[in-house]
Amino acid sequence: MQQPTLQNVKIRSTRDALQVFHGVATHRLPLITRRLDAEERRNIMPGNVYVWEERGANTEPTGLGMERWTDGMGWGPSRVRDEFLFYHQKDSDTNDDLLNPVTPWAQMMSDRFATNRRSSIRLNNRPFSTDAHVLSEAERLIKQTYSVHVSLPGDRSRGIVRKWHLTAYFSPSTLDGLDTIDNIRGVGDVTVPEGWFRSARIGRNRRDSRAHGANSISPDSPHSPPASMGMIPPPNSHQRLPSPSHPPSPPAPSVYHNIPLPLPSHSSNSHHSMSQLVPLEILVRTSGPKRDPADELLLRRFSS
């Protein structure tokens, strides 16, 4: 049975991801060489990290690599933060797991759900399902992915460039308890050589920019380069602003500061037009043009 590349570890930044890739390239960490079977999928849990090679022209002769990653779970749309993609496990999947758990992680969720339900007391006619929803939010898995083009010294003479992917799993409730690669000797304390790994999203971002042509890209656009690693914003037109209740990000922040939530969409045109309206208090203080004396006399007679 294939073991994960790493267990009980969180990937905080692209630097962490590159350290893991380097550990795989130097054979300190295992590379996933085939799709996970049913038993291996059942063993997916928070803290598992998998590095796998995408099947391409360079991998056909050896038979290694995969066309895509499959874990048997359903995920929502991707959310982009810097070079990472994040996917939240769908509600239907977590609910199904509670009723019919198929993995140890789902079994633990089911047991905790049953224990809390037996010990719960109805207050103010509020059903326990409200608390159960909060529990599932904290326990729900989040999948984190990162991709690079790999140019190993032994491959360069043959013109071979590989594509590797990192797939990591965590949940909000387990994140603080996961270890970091800084504590893994031979992986987190090794300098990654220049030129071995290049983000697979760099070329894609350039193509997206060219596709927009002369259209300007706003700072909130998902195609513009990120400014920091403090948040994981949603895709498309949604953007989450940092919460004012949180302190400023440290010099080397991780990608886990907040769970991304979309803000209500607003039309930039309507916002621009509203900003040009004259304040109401000015309109009240300003008197209109004087009426013709004949009209004034007629109005006085009409009101008397």
TrEMBL record:
Which regions are flagged for Pro residues bias? 244-253
| Domain of life of the source | Eukaryota
Q: Which InterPro entries match?
A: Gti1/Pac2
Region Disordered, annotated ranges: 201-272
Xref: Pfam families: Gti1_Pac2
Give any GO molecular function from the UniProt entry.
DNA binding
PANTHER family xrefs: CAMP INDEPENDENT REGULATORY PROTEIN (AFU_ORTHOLOGUE AFUA_3G09640), TRANSCRIPTIONAL REGULATOR MIT1
Protein's recorded name: cAMP-independent regulatory protein pac2
Q: Look up and give the organism this protein is from.
A: Gymnopilus dilepis
